[in-house]
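User: For my dataset I need records formatted as: sequence, then structure tokens, nothing else. Please produce one.
Assistant:
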Amino acid sequence: MVEWVTATCALADCGQSFERPVRAGRPRQYHQAECRTRAKRLRAKEKADAQRAGRGRGGWGLPAAEDVHAAAGKLLEAQARQAPLGVRMAGARALQEEVGRYVAAAVHDARAGGGSWAEIGAALGIEADSARRRWAPQRVSRQLGLRSRQGVAGVAVCDQGCGPAGGFTGGAAPDGGAHRVD
């Protein structure tokens, strides 16, 4: 007797529930062939868009490095002014985030240039499989896409005196409280 389970279609636009048998092999992810085909087309489009986006001046690494530079400059300004510790730590966190985005962009550029996961892993001091999992193309695209919508962390100006003249925003007010920065 075959056991059946309820699953949800993996296509984000669909999400319909369907019954699939429990058996050896890869389980069905889509409730119908049209969803599978549509998901395949969306993945191909995302991949093509990512490749096109990475072809600009220096790939994705150069703009990411510029963002690291901007975040480091803001942290340096905050330190030179002896801004409150909370402001400086928010700047340090923002700089760490930008460095993480730079690493993701550099890995993307290395892969787009024909670099192997073994080479990338060696450069980062980790195993090739770990690098492949950590910087899978979909994860990198999401991470860098999110970054492009948010802009450089900490560069926004807030109305509470903690923008560029007051140091990093990062959600931390000069008095240590939190506030929203739009």
